[in-house]
Specification:
This protein is α/β, with parallel strands linked by helices and about 350 residues long. It is about 30% helix and about 15% strand. It has two domains: about 25-185 and about 275-350, Alpha/Beta hydrolase fold, catalytic domain (Rossmann fold, 3-Layer(aba) Sandwich); about 185-270, Rna Polymerase Sigma Factor, Chain: A (Orthogonal Bundle). A hairpin with a 5-residue loop joins strand 1 (about 25-35) and strand 2 (about 40-50). The chain is globular, with a radius of gyration of 20 Å.
Amino acid sequence: MQRMMMLAVAAVLAWPAAAQPAVAEADFIVRDFGFGDGRRLPELKQHYRTLGTPQRDAQGNITNAVMIGHGTGGTGAQFLVPQFTRLFAPGAPLDLATHFIILPDAIGHGGSSKPSDGLRMAFPAYDYADMVRAQGLLLDHLKVKRLRLLMGTSMGCMMGFQFGTDLPGRAAAIMPLACNVIPLAGRNRLWRAMAINAIKADPDWNGGNYTTPPLNGLRVGVALQVMASSAPVRMQADWPTRDAADAAAQRAMAQGLAGSADANDRIYQLEASRNYHPAPHLARITVPVTWVNSADDVINPPGVGDAALQVKAMPQGRFVLIPESAETRGHSTHTWSQFWEGELKALLARSN
């Protein structure tokens, strides 16, 4: 398979310590939202964060909006880290002086409506199409007719393709990071199914009506996700001894459990990908696209999904595979912008 590799790493731009970007947070309520499973919610809450100042046309529509979608189990806040916010610094590709950044929490995540709000396993069985449609309504609310750029990592990457095929033309450019366009089957579904089954097999889960979190089931899910997100070369360099690796395993489990979603929320998050399959519809995406995967991504490894072939279905598509090194971070390379910042600059230039 032909691989298009990014060979250069952009120079680091960073915010001065005393000048971190200001973040605003808000909620948008959709009344009587209908889901693809036929159920409805009287109120669907979407939480979101924004950075920068919107620029508007004569009709009041925002013209400089960039929306960035997060990964499974995450929130928009996951991008408020130095390795990503460097993109928002003065002179950087998404300089806040000229861009308005929108960081939504997808349905089922963060401050947005989710099973743990009270419905538990009676919550509508949302999927990526529901999540994208809700975000389209959020853009309507914000008066964004067309995004300057749509980005997304992992689940947000998949939602980028879903958005592009379901809402064609609503983004002037798309940059999906760390995903494929085929159904989630094979190993990618295997670890998800095992994580779901582990929660449901924990007696504390009690059909979703638990009073004590099913920690044994959640531990299995944390372990599976740590391995699915692993970066073998980097990990060997970071933990070159048995003792170092054992200590890292303990830290990863503790951190994973501390940051783990509610068990029912987690089941829904992992099931939302059940009918994802944009590959047959990619020709609908006619705007410039730069799709970036990493060679050490265990979730989306080279050889699965044939991204270099699939990208050809999009008239202005480009696929980039970041080579593995002791510096890359497996699946999480998607949030370390120095590896793909040059490609972002090029995408903005060719979609101007």
